[in-house]
Amino acid sequence: MHYRVRPMPTKLVGTKHHQVAQLLRKHIAQLPPGGKVPTFAELTRRFGASRTTIETALQRLRKDGLIYRPAGKQRLVVAELHDKAAGSIALLRPDYPSQDYDAICCAVVEAGKKRGWVFDLLSYGDLRALDLERAWGNNDAALLLPNCQEFPPHLVRVLSNPRKPIVLLQEHWVGRGVCNVCVDDRMVGRMAVEHLISLGHRRILMLLEQPHVSSVMERYEGWREAMIGIGETDLESLLVDCQVENGQHPLTVAYAGMSRWMETNRTKFTAIFSTTEYGAIAAIRTLDEHGLKVPDDVSVISFAGKSNLCAFIRPPLTAVEIDMESYGRATADALSELLSQSSASAGEIKIKPALWMRRTTGRAPDQTSRSRSDNE
Q1: According to the model, what pLDDT value does residue 290 have?
Q2: Cα–Cα distance, 269 to 373 (Å, whole number)
Q3: What's 209's DSSP letter?
Q4: Checking DSSP bridges between strand 67-68 and strand 77-78, what pairing results, if any?
Q5: Phi-psi category of residue 48: left, alpha or beta, with phi > 0 → left and psi -120 to 50 → alpha
């Protein structure tokens, strides 16, 4: 993992009452239902805080339902039914189904549960209409998984100066006020191309079947750098941009885009790198419809996150993947650091990918083998 950090201004997490509330939350989690909360005098001595700070912290815990004052009583007690969580985290994700989004959310929630966190799972439809500060509500922190839309100005302002700890997932957001956890997507592109080069391929097609978000464009840059490194300069002829929009299913759009390209171009190629497994599936079908076999005539590789789908594709798909457990753990580590204020920093954490070789990549065809153009 690669870290680039910058100072993060003190926000709500840095206030004394927030720190006291967090410590009290852990203490209350050890008490039985109905147990008495320490008195104001005891709490001011224990935490070295003013009565006003203690009152603010207790009000927060009462609002969260952890403690209450029984009728006619002076002492606060632990609620009969309450969540003994160490922290409450808002997790905001796009509202449409996505295997990749599901895998990321599951990994993050599992890692957070090991720290005693509970999650407020929220979804949004339009990033331009997302009121982030209202969405995270009374939660201690937030995780935002963006969709493929461009960040609107009002959201940029909030993210550049967040009131609470927040971690962006998947988005490359360097030099701003929040921490972001993402895949080293440029390495994904380089790793895919370098694998194909090791098999003798030079004419490697790039299939863009995702919107032009930062992660996809980083994979494109990795492909571009590796291709230039072997002396390929005519990269425009090797780029298939399917122009997928936010909310469109990449599989159907990629199939249509790849089919159009094959029908209107005569560019020779021996391999395809797709930004996701959906594009790879579409490419394999399109190649088959044009009488080309994978990997005998054309090799196919893609980025696949950590998808079980790759093993069920025929032939099984060679892919650059990440360990989702490591992704979830890195996210939890970053958020825990921000919550604890042990090191007030924000930056980018990159998860390194790994190559999984299956059966869609093979040696490049030799001079006597049929080419893509010769086969049509």
Answers
A1: 96
A2: 9
A3: -
A4: antiparallel
A5: left
Contacts 24+ apart (CB under 8 A), 4-8: 4/174, 4/347, 4/348, 5/345, 5/346, 5/347, 6/175, 6/345, 6/346, 6/347, 7/344, 7/345, 7/346, 8/177, 8/178, 8/338, 8/344, 8/345, 8/346
* Residue 121 shares a structural domain with residue 51: no
| Tens-digit pLDDT profile for residues 273-306 | 999 899 999 999 999 999 999 999 999 999 987 6
Angle (CA) 177 179 180, round 5° = 125
Which of 78, 108, 139 terminates a domain? The answer is 78
Q: Please, which pLDDT band fits residue 174 given cuts at 50, 70 and 90?
A: low
pLDDT digits (tens, 9 = 90+) for 340-373: 764 445 688 999 999 999 999 999 997 434 445 4
User: Does residue 44 register a pLDDT over 50?
Assistant: yes
Number of H helices, E strands in the chain: 11, 15
Do 122 and 211 lie in one domain? The reply is no
Please state, in angstroms and rounded to a whole number, the distance separating the CA atoms of residues 6 and 3: 10
CA 105 to chain centre: 8
More confident of the two residues 60 and 141: 141
Residue 120: domain span: 87-183+324-352
What is the count of structural domains for the chain? Answer: 3
Residues 169 and 200 in one domain: no
What residue type is 323 in one-letter code? D
Which single residue is written with the structure tokens 């203490």? 27
Cis bond upstream, residue 211 (ω within 30): no
Kind of pairing between the strands at 166-169 and 141-144:
parallel
Which residue blocks in 296-374 are alpha helix, DSSP H? 324-340
For residue 289, give the 3-state DSSP assignment: helix
Residues 132 and 238 in one domain: no
Count of C-beta atoms within a 10 Å radius of residue 208: 24
* Neighbour-count burial of 307, counting CB atoms closer than 10 A to its CB (0-12 exposed, 13-18 middle, 19+ buried): buried
Global pTM value: 0.77
Q: Where are the alpha helices (DSSP H) in 87-138?
A: 99-113, 132-136
Asked if 308 and 196 sit in the same domain, the reply is yes
